[in-house]
Design brief:
Elements (H helix, E strand, L loop, with lengths): L1 H11 L6 E2 L9 E5 L16 H5 L1 H9 L3 E5 L16 H11 L3 E3 L6 H8 L6 E3 L7 H5 L2 H8 L4 E4 L22 E3 L1 H15 L5 E5 L8 H7 L5 E4 L4 H7 L14 H13 L3 E3 L3 E5 L8 E5 L8 E5 L1 H11 L4 E5 L12 H13 L2 E4 L2 H10 L7 E2 L4 H7 L5 H4 L4
Parallel strand pairs: 1-7, 2-3, 2-6, 3-5, 4-5, 6-7, 8-9, 8-14, 9-10, 14-15, 15-16
Antiparallel strand pairs: 11-12, 11-13
Helix pairs in contact: 1-8, 10-11, 12-13, 13-14
Bound molecules: adenosine monophosphate (AMP).
Length: 409
């Protein structure tokens, strides 16, 4: 896996599989910087969460300190391969200008003569944001001519969009073949550092906490992780498929019938490897999935036939907390319950507290988990929150990421 090489290299300073931006000579150069500015924007054009923009500021400020000419490229939303004004990056250019306290120009497109003219007029320290890459269908098709059109704009290539590095798109993968000098930005470097460490040389005991709605969404993660960890904690909706595989009646709780056998196999494989698996002992059940539902806490073997489990119960929370106490590394993906609704949020919020209190290195990733941690108010106490959803999961699945592979020299 790439991650182990990177992590070893970063520790030992040995020959690198690929570089990070501070190992490239970018002084005064035109830097093509692939970022993930795919931020939520409301109808009035206001960015409702600028986390992804802020996440790239260390790389941007570094490049500015080197007087680079920065050409930023990103996608936004899902335009259908042609310009659609609602997916323009204009609000992002404004926001970035505010954050950097300097002018950020927006190009009318991401390739073509007009953009090339704008780039040619750039001075050292100028920042130009290209218009949405996905206004061209060639971006997602990884079309070579399009990639070359992008590459033409710059001298060096930097990728700081780890969140899209699992996609072989032109700006992530194809474009790199046209650059001799390429590197990871600081965000990408940090993501790979933390995730690489967990996957390849974690401080043990390593505990994985996996939750969320379904087993199916995380099957490969479970299969890849279960034999590597010391303890596996399973919560959320997916726990009911595992409980069912042990012969429990789980009422109307979420069960993926076709995966009951697989769930059992995962438990058996973990057991063979000496991995301790923790499943819920009790849960909060409700008569419907609604904030106004009737609820009660019941032991797992006493879920009423007409009710559904929507959160872990207090005894489970305690038990999971015990399991976390001696952890040195905790990897968490997926909430313990339907945390979006107050009556079913205590398990997830409690887990955030327990993870923080354990003092272990904690790595959290995946869209919903990230949201839950921020909701808890304890986000700053987590060692690392990954900004990448799909890429984070693919790395946990043990897959190679095209955008990471493409940075290798
Ligand atoms: P995922 O994207 O797979 O991590 O799933 C996250 C979603 O799982 C959240 O929106 C939760 O509301 C949902 N979830 C967690 N626990 C349960 C549960 N017991 N039953 C149904 N949905 C759940």
């Amino acid at each position: 896996m790439v991650s182990i090489r990177l992590i070893l290299e970063m520790k030992g300073g040995e020959a690198m599989a690929f570089k990070s931006i501070d190992q490239l000579d970018i002084t005064g150069k035109r830097v093509f910087l692939r970022v993930d500015f795919n931020v939520p924007i409301d109808k009035s054009g206001k960015i409702t969460d600028d986390t992804r923009i802020r996440a790239v500021l260390p790389t941007l400020n570094y490049a500015l300190s080197k007087n680079a000419r920065i050409i930023l490229a990103s996608h936004l939303g899902r335009p259908k391969g042609k310009p659609e004004p609602e997916f323009s990056l204009a609000p992002v250019a404004r926001k970035l200008g505010e954050l950097l306290k300097k002018q950020v120009s927006l190009a009318p497109d991401c390739i073509g003569p007009e953009v090339e003219k704008m780039v040619a007029a750039m001075k050292p320290g100028d920042v130009l944001l290209l218009e949405n890459l996905r206004f061209h269908k060639e971006e997602e098709k990884n079309e070579a001519g399009f990639a070359q059109g992008l590459a033409k704009l710059a001298d060096v290539y930097v990728n700081d969009a780890f969140a899209v590095s699992h996609r072989a798109h032109a700006s992530v993968e194809g474009v790199t073949q046209f650059f001799k000098d390429k590197a990871a930005g600081f965000l990408m470097r940090d993501e790979l550092h933390y995730l690489g460490k967990v996957m390849e040389e974690p401080a043990r005991p390593l505990v994985a906490v996996i939750g969320g709605a379904k087993v199916s969404g995380k099957l490969e993660v479970l299969q890849n992780l279960a034999p590597r960890v010391d303890k596996l904690i399973i919560g959320g909706g997916m726990a009911f498929t595992f409980l069912k595989s042990l012969g429990m009646n789980v009422g109307k709780s979420l069960v993926e019938q076709d995966l009951v056998k697989t769930a059992r196999e995962i438990l058996e494989a973990a057991d063979k490897k000496g991995v301790k698996v923790y499943l819920p002992l009790d849960c909060v059940v409700a008569d419907k999935m609604d904030p106004s539902a009737q609820t009660k806490v019941v032991p797992i073997e006493k879920i009423p036939a007409d009710w559904m489990g929507l959160d872990i119960g207090p005894e489970t929370l305690n038990r999971f907390g015990e399991a976390l106490k001696d952890a040195k590394t905790i990897l968490w993906n997926g909430p313990m319950g339907v945390f979006e609704m107050e009556p079913f949020s205590k398990g997830t919020m409690g887990m955030v507290r327990q993870i923080v209190n354990s003092g272990a290195m904690s790595i959290v990733g995946g869209g919903d988990t990230d949201t839950a941690v921020h909701k808890s108010g304890l986000a700053e106490k987590i060692s690392y929150i990954s900004t990448a959803g799909g890429a984070f999961l693919e790395l946990l699945e043990g897959k190679k990421l095209p955008g990471v592979e493409a940075l290798k020299t």
